From TrEMBL, chain A:
<comment type="similarity">
    <text>Belongs to the ABC transporter superfamily.</text>
</comment>
<keyword id="KW-0067">ATP-binding</keyword>
<dbReference type="InterPro" id="IPR003593">
    <property type="entry name" value="AAA+_ATPase"/>
</dbReference>
<dbReference type="Pfam" id="PF00005">
    <property type="entry name" value="ABC_tran"/>
</dbReference>
<dbReference type="InterPro" id="IPR013563">
    <property type="entry name" value="Oligopep_ABC_C"/>
</dbReference>
<keyword id="KW-0813">Transport</keyword>
<feature type="domain" description="ABC transporter">
    <location>
        <begin position="19"/>
        <end position="269"/>
    </location>
</feature>
<dbReference type="InterPro" id="IPR003439">
    <property type="entry name" value="ABC_transporter-like_ATP-bd"/>
</dbReference>
<dbReference type="GO" id="GO:0005524">
    <property type="term" value="F:ATP binding"/>
</dbReference>
TrEMBL record, chain B:
<protein>
    <submittedName>
        <fullName>Oligopeptide/dipeptide ABC transporter ATP-binding protein</fullName>
    </submittedName>
</protein>
<feature type="region of interest" description="Disordered">
    <location>
        <begin position="1"/>
        <end position="26"/>
    </location>
</feature>
<keyword id="KW-0813">Transport</keyword>
<dbReference type="InterPro" id="IPR027417">
    <property type="entry name" value="P-loop_NTPase"/>
</dbReference>
<comment type="similarity">
    <text>Belongs to the ABC transporter superfamily.</text>
</comment>
<dbReference type="InterPro" id="IPR050319">
    <property type="entry name" value="ABC_transp_ATP-bind"/>
</dbReference>
<dbReference type="InterPro" id="IPR003439">
    <property type="entry name" value="ABC_transporter-like_ATP-bd"/>
</dbReference>
<feature type="region of interest" description="Disordered">
    <location>
        <begin position="287"/>
        <end position="314"/>
    </location>
</feature>
<dbReference type="GO" id="GO:0005524">
    <property type="term" value="F:ATP binding"/>
</dbReference>
Length: 344, 356
């Protein structure tokens, strides 16, 4: 829930948000060359909750996801007013202290399963290694656990297939192996970065169903990074929409997708073809998303926005709170009330 | 397999020949593919050479002023088909006619006709434009290659083409890196239009673009169809985009057409179990449709290898409706009994599907 810290979060995440992020900033480069990729992001993920972080390329969604896990590329500087996992202050931890948390309490699933897997180790060895390193289990026990995990993510004949190498699996199967590794130690938080983008729709449906089942059965919080509105609509409980390094709108998916309060979300939803609108031209958004080094001043969306006023380019709009049908929601737009009113 | 293909060809052409679809699009047939097949060598197994059958007996007719969507999952042969349609790849069997001329064997003369008449737009606008060429050079390259006009007239034509795709003629001196992804794809389309082709084959033209930019390119293709009477082959894996732009749709599975016909019946009342499964698995942006994926048609098992496709119907190993006949007889593209819609399905059990 990307509500500003002054707003008390309402849902079950309220008393016990699993992941709580306030004022996250990530910059690349130094001095005059520094480019801000993430410009003050607030985010909450509750236990058993699936939060979608929706954005286009360059919006900073993947950088945000990696920063949560304490993973940044060399030369990137991360700072946050607050970043905690189940009450544990992540900002105070060193890399040495963070390391054992990854995998055990929070885990990452990446998009490109083939390059994330080691081509010269059998999948059983890779999944088993993780179990051995973190739990000190014997080789035999780790192998047994690997079989169990591969069966859980729906790999047929898991007991035989643990001996196979990554290239012997299809794209969808490899993605499941990554998910099996990510959930091997039953982490509280799973961060999935475009886990289905490279997959065919029938396989995507299986992987989404798997993620949905795992968070229900294991009570995991899931932060799903995606650019696909269809995927968000299908699986998300809540959604945070990112544009040019900021969360521009956040709230229950029922509110945000049905009655968007930010012109960007609204325009994005109007530009994708839906069954109801087969004829005629699609609504378009002029221009293209800014590259991080050339982010427009004020509201970064204002040059493309049909609602823009002169004031929009003067100052970065603060998130405004509104009452959605499914709880409080925020929109970082000075005209958000008008945008909402137009739906009536 | 070759006898089956001949059969497919016969049925396919009679059915698809009827003009129909959105409005009255019954224009001239510009591309006519019959029984197109393409195999790739895939090493040896013992003494036998193994082949992968990428496309196997595809019939398609494309009319002026229509958008034909081609959908299917990775490995179904849609890109190979696209490459054969523009003459980048020679079919192993079957014929391809462009405006009534058989261009399959492609002597020098036919090759030239084909090159001018059928152009391609590629998926990745970052990789398909030479970074060292100015936009003018990119767009006029086809004209120069075809030895059309003088430098000055080519330059003027390039300016017109840029205006046509919604860019300005003042941008001719710029380099591709100065443009965004959506603008680059427009440049790719302008290059494709340089020789005034009748057909534009677009292989995943919007997949590499940001969501907020896709609509611009989709609308542009629709406008070109309307204004120039262009025939467009639109290959994509995003079903909702295809649903939006296509007059007719071809659904491919493992190198063969599963279903082909007017977009509306194919999407609303599929007559092939694979089409139905594909549609039910694609998530909808409409939040009220949430839970669709949970109710989807779940396909058994994994897609079979194209090096060793199943006998009979290639979809039968995953099909919920498969019966004995499906493993012995290759289903031909046909109109299902009692089906009033303008479309054909290659399924023995199409009547069962439509009835239930």
């Amino acid at each position: 829930m990307a509500v500003p810290s002054t707003v008390p979060p309402p849902s079950r995440a309220a008393h016990d948000p699993l992941l709580r992020v306030r004022g996250l900033r990530v910059a690349a480069g130094t001095g005059d060359e520094a480019v801000e990729l993430v410009r003050g992001v607030d985010l909450d993920v509750g236990r058993g909750e699936l939060v979608a972080l929706l954005g286009e390329s360059g919006s900073g969604k993947s950088v945000t996801a990696r920063a949560v896990l304490g993973l940044g590329a060399p030369g990137m500087r991360t700072s946050a007013d607050e970043m905690s996992l189940a009450g544990l202050d992540l900002t105070a931890l060193t890399e040495r202290q963070l390391r054992p948390l990854r995998g055990r309490r929070m885990a990452l699933v990446v998009q490109d399963a083939l390059s994330a897997l080691n081509p010269v180790l059998s999948v059983g060895d890779q999944v088993g290694e993780l179990v051995r390193v973190h739990t000190g289990a014997s080789r035999r026990a780790a192998r047994a656990r690997a079989v169990e995990l591969l069966a859980m993510v729906g790999i047929p004949g898991a007991a035989q297939r643990v001996r196979d190498y990554p290239h012997q699996f299809s794209g969808g199967m490899r993605q499941r192996i990554l998910i099996a590794m990510a959930v091997a130690l039953e982490p509280e938080l799973l961060v999935a970065d475009e886990p289905t983008t490279a997959l065919d729709v029938t396989v995507q449906a299986q992987v989404l169903e798997l993620l949905d089942g795992l968070r229900r059965d294991l009570g995991m919080g899931v932060l799903l990074i995606t650019h696909d509105l269809g995927v968000v609509s299908e699986v998300a409980d809540r959604v945070a929409v990112m544009y040019a390094g900021r969360v521009v709108e956040a709230g229950s998916a029922d509110d945000v997708l049905v009655r968007p309060a930010h012109p960007y979300t609204r325009a994005l939803l109007a530009s994708v073809p839906q069954a109801a609108t087969t004829a005629g031209a699609l609504a378009t958004i002029p221009g293209s998303p800014p590259v991080p080094a050339q982010t427009p001043p004020g509201c970064a969306f204002s040059p493309r926005c049909t609602w823009a006023l002169p004031a929009c380019s003067a100052e970065v709009p603060a998130p405004r709170r509104h009452d959605g049908a499914a709880g409080p929601r925020t929109s970082a737009c000075i005209r958000s009330q008008e945008v909402l009113d137009e739906h009536r | 397999m070759s006898t089956a293909e001949t059969g497919t060809t016969g049925t396919g052409t009679t059915g698809t020949g009827t003009p129909a679809s959105r409005g009255d699009v019954g224009g001239e047939v510009v591309l006519d593919a019959r029984g197109l097949a393409r195999r790739y060598p895939a090493g040896r197994s013992g003494l036998r050479r193994r082949t992968v059958s990428a496309v196997d007996g595809v019939d398609l007719r494309l009319r002026a002023g229509e958008v034909l969507g081609v959908v299917g999952e990775s490995g179904c042969g849609k890109s190979t088909l696209a490459r054969m349609l523009v003459g980048l790849e020679r079919p192993d069997a079957g014929t391809l006619s462009y405006r009534g001329t058989d261009v399959t064997r492609m002597g020098r003369a036919e090759h030239g006709v084909m090159r001018r008449g059928v152009q391609m737009v590629f998926q990745d606008p970052y990789a398909s434009l030479d970074p060292r060429m100015t936009v003018e050079q990119v767009v006029t390259e086809p004209l120069a290659a075809a030895r059309t006009g003088s430098r000055a007239t080519r330059r003027q034509r390039a300016g017109e083409l840029l205006e046509l795709v919604g860019l300005s003629a003042g941008m001719l001196g710029r380099y591709p890196h100065q443009f965004s992804g959506g603008q680059r794809q427009r440049i790719g389309i302008a290059r494709g239009l340089a020789l005034e082709p009748s057909v534009l084959v677009c292989d995943e033209p919007v997949s590499a673009l940001d969501v907020s930019v896709q609509a611009q390119v989709v609308n542009l293709l629709g406008r070109l169809r309307d204004e120039l009477g262009l025939a467009v082959v639109f290959i994509a894996h995003d079903l909702s985009v295809v649903r939006h732009v296509a007059d007719r749709v071809a659904v491919m599975y493992l190198g063969r057409l599963a279903e082909v016909g007017d977009a509306e019946p194919v999407f609303e009342r599929p007559a092939h179990p694979y089409t139905r499964a594909l549609l039910s698995a694609s998530p909808s942006v409409d939040r009220t449709q949430r839970g669709r994926l949970g109710r989807r048609e779940v396909l058994r098992g994994e897609p079979p290898s194209p090096a060793d496709p199943p006998s009979g119907c290639r979809f039968r190993t995953r099909c919920p409706l498969a019966v004995e006949e499906c493993s012995t007889d290759v289903p031909l593209l046909r109109r299902a009994r009692g089906d009033a819609d303008e479309r054909l399905a290659a399924c023995h059990r199409a009547e069962v599907l439509l009835g239930g």
